[in-house]
Amino acid sequence: GIPKEVFDAACIHDVEQAVRVAEKIGYPTMLKASQGGGGKGIRMSKNEEELRANYEQVVAEVVGSPVFMMKLCGNARHIEIQIVGDEHGNAVALSGRDCSTQRRFQKIFEEGPPTIVPPEIFKEMERAAQRLTQAIGYRGAGTVEYLYEPPTRTFCFLELNPRLQVEHPVTEGLTGVNIPATQLQVAMGIRLDRIPDIRRFYNREDVYGDSPIDFMTEDYPEVKTHVIAARITAENPDEGFKPTSGRIERVRFQSTPKVWGYFSVNNNGGIHEFADSQFGHVFASGPDRESARKQLLLALKEIEVRGEIRNPVEYLCQLLETEAFKTNNIDTSWLDGLIRDKSVKTEPERDQVVICAAVYETHKIVTKKLKDMEAALEKGQAGAVYDLISLNSFSLPITYKGFKYEFSVQRASPDQYVFTVNKQRIAVKVR
User: pLDDT exceeding 90 applies to what percent of the chain?
Assistant: First the structure.
């Protein structure tokens, strides 16, 4: 519904125009390719030199996409409104999400409802999103995204994301509305106020009825649930969330009444180097934000991912335990600051460190003894055969952080060892 000349006038068409606009609105600025996403096609520039370099990167990352530029909004929260529009001119806002925990403009946690926004301001956000949806004749599910500044209680429009986002189950947990099903019903031409899930959300007793609902004047009942989601990615938090790839041997996750999740890889699957790094999503709910936070923390601690990739699950647990996250005192630059300052550090579990050290030392000892034995036999020293006894069974002390662990090692086969410590037996296969 937007005339092409109006749309083109809002875009940046070359680097010289970008420099002129930046001089007008002031630095720092944000460049954003409208067809980008997931951290691609978006750059922040503090001066002209950075802007010229960033413009070329943005247009190269999302070839052919319109490019917008705006002044950077600092210390802001990323607030989203989930909207659905139908062909009859109706637009409903299904609460919203706070996606302020990001690194390199990619979301890590998503939660809702956005408790940082006062109810009256949040209602203004919803109504503005609905008016926009109606004004452009948008049909289907989408997300109207804002930047919100808590100190001034002001918000500004960021973009309308015309698709279903991966974090939409946060909204489903808040509203009980099946959004993909709603989108299909809208595509079939069904009015929003006749979709059962929508009518149920608006407290209509006759969920299969046809009585009209004025979504612009009627408010839905207060949402009494909080949901927090965490993205599980194949990234290394020790290297600034650098993507990793490789085989995945095992993924273990157990859903509970308060937590559920999904993973896009099975045991013995893998993450390709050219694929998106996200392979899982975990959602936790509770009567309030603190309850949902604790449920998510417990669930993440139970996740087990084994394989060649790295994942940030332990790092996410550390983030959930920070005072800033607990008190909801964060903004979109918070996580990037922690990563830059290396304020959050993860340490592997003691048992894992000790076992890995024992496996490494055992393999090193066995490999050396085998080479020594082969060299002795080549020289005709047959007595070296008697060393096989010490090769297949020996004691191994490991010291870690002042504690000493005494292992009894049995060599079960050329590539398998059995470790016994504190009456526990651990079988390990070495590749």
Answer: 71
Closest to 67 in 3D by CA, of 29, 109, 26, 36: 36
99 vs 141: CA distance, rounded Å: 18
Torsion angle, alpha carbons of 209, 212, 218, 220, to 10:
20
Q: Which two tokens stand for residue 240?
A: 């600034």
Which pair of structure tokens corresponds to residue 10?
A: 């809002």
366 Cβ contact partners less than 8 Å away, ≥ 6 residues apart: 391, 411
Clarify whether 289 is annotated catalytic: no
DSSP 142-162: EEEEEEEETTTTEEEEEEEE-
Closest CA to 35 of 166, 160, 183: 160
Q: Which amino acid is it at 8?
A: D
pLDDT band at 63 (very low <50, low <70, confident <90, very high): very high
Tokens for 264, please give them.
């896009």
Indicate the pLDDT class of residue 384, thresholds 50, 70 and 90. Answer: low
Cα separation of the two ends of the chain: 60
Q: How far apart are CA 221 and CA 236, in angstroms?
A: 42
Angle, CA 233 vertex, CA 93 and CA 74 arms, to 5°: 55
Contact assessment for residue 279 and residue 308, using Cβ atoms and an 8 Å cutoff? no
Could you tell me the pLDDT band of residue 290, with boundaries at 50, 70 and 90? very high
Q: How far is CA 111 from CA 114, 227, 228, in A?
A: 7, 5, 4
Supply the pTM of this predicted model.
0.78
Helices (H) and strands (E) in the chain, counts: 13, 22
Q: Which residues of 187-226 are buried (b: 16+ CB within 10 A; e: fewer)?
A: eeebbbbbbbbbbebbeeeeeeeeeebebeeeebeebebb
The answer to whether the peptide bond before residue 28 is cis (omega within 30 degrees of 0) is yes
Catalytic residue among 163, 247, 250, 425: 163
